[in-house]
Write a structure and sequence with these properties.
- This protein is an alpha/beta fold and 319 residues long.
- It has 8 helices and 16 strands.
- The strands form 4 sheets. Strands 1-2-3-4-8-10 form a 6-stranded mixed sheet. Strands 7-6-5-9 form a 4-stranded mixed sheet, with no helix packed on it.
- β2 and β3 form a beta hairpin.
- α1 packs across α2.
- The longest helix is centred in the N-terminal third of the chain and has 26 residues.
């Protein structure tokens, strides 16, 4: 069997990382942000479950792109999954819904909540069909030949209950069989393996990840932030800096690299650079010199000198 390729695997977006850092570090999180975090995390978990079902389908040679966000004439569109096969392409829209799902007469998706309430959504097939039309236009714009494009909506939650039978609205467990039937529709190879590879690389080069607004670290925000290096066992217990390591006052566990997790939260909250003063504030450290040694030990690029020096955290958390 020819190997599969995962050049753009499922991964957490910058926006999700930002929301997770807010959840870790804010003293209070608004209901709106909690809901956004829940939706973003559910979407990521749904996408992350799909490669397994692609693998067990045993379909040879495909080039898989997750979370691809493209620009068509100034309008951004994002596909949860784009799979490039030799005879066709497949776009998936992932829904990590649970409980009972219905389609009403108006072709809307209805999710029944456990307490009996209903939540109404637009039919995701409409959304994925729009993505298909946008992809067709983008490929034509860049001089690629026409190739058949199929679309599927995949419900990934293990506790979802679909009350309808639709060939393009399926659970993730149904994906291997559905994919095999689609493949049988397109026995002719329209693109060779190397052409798939180059097209995949081209699409990755056009990928524009959604940005996230960093917080400005100032006197107004400081009281709302939970500072310190957390013990991963006793979180939010703050560890103490002792003899070049970090020690939890509760469980007594030591970890010489525990500051990296704190720096990662800072990176996704406040931006890619940090000063000695900001590091002392965020890590709850008193000594300028100890903090300076800690920052320098990480081998980060530095700009500026003395107290105005800024250290680039990007090298620690490259995506």
């Amino acid at each position: 069997m020819t190997p599969h390729f995962y050049p753009l695997p499922p991964r957490k977006t910058l926006h999700l990382r930002h929301l997770e850092a807010l959840n870790n570090r804010c003293t209070t999180l608004s209901t709106t942000l909690e809901e956004k975090l829940g939706r973003e995390l559910a979407g990521y978990l749904g996408e992350a479950s799909l490669p397994y079902y692609l693998e067990i389908s045993s379909i040879s040679t495909h080039y898989d792109l997750y979370g691809l966000r493209l620009n068509l004439n100034g309008n951004k569109f994002q596909m949860d999954g784009l799979y490039l096969f030799e005879g066709f392409f497949l776009i998936t829209e992932v829904k990590n819904f649970k409980n009972k799902i219905l389609l009403n007469e108006a072709n809307q998706l209805i999710q029944l909540q456990e307490e009996g309430s209903e939540e109404v959504f637009d039919n995701p097939l409409t959304q994925v069909e729009l993505q298909k039309e946008q992809l067709i236009q983008l490929l034509d714009k860049h001089g690629y030949p026409t190739i058949p494009i199929e679309t599927l909506v995949v419900f990934t939650h293990k506790k979802v209950h679909l009350t309808f039978n639709h060939p393009d609205l399926i659970t993730s467990q149904q994906l291997p069989a559905r994919l095999k039937r689609i493949t049988q529709k397109y026995p002719t190879k329209l693109l060779q393996r190397n052409e798939l590879y180059h097209l995949g690389r081209k699409l990755i080069s056009l990928h524009e990840e959604r940005g996230s607004a960093f917080i400005n670290p100032n006197d107004k925000i400081f009281p709302k932030i939970k500072r310190g290096v957390f013990c991963n066992r006793c979180k939010p217990i703050i560890m103490r800096r002792i003899y070049g390591s970090w020690e939890c006052p509760k469980c007594k566990k030591r970890n010489s690299l525990a500051h990296l997790v704190a720096f990662e939260d800072f990176y996704y909250l406040f931006g890619h650079t940090i000063t000695n003063r900001q590091a002392r504030w965020f890590l709850c450290m008193d000594s300028v010199y100890t903090t300076s040694r800690l920052l320098q030990s990480l081998g980060m690029k530095r700009s500026g000198i003395t107290k105005n020096a800024r250290y680039d955290l990007s090298s620690l958390f490259k995506r």
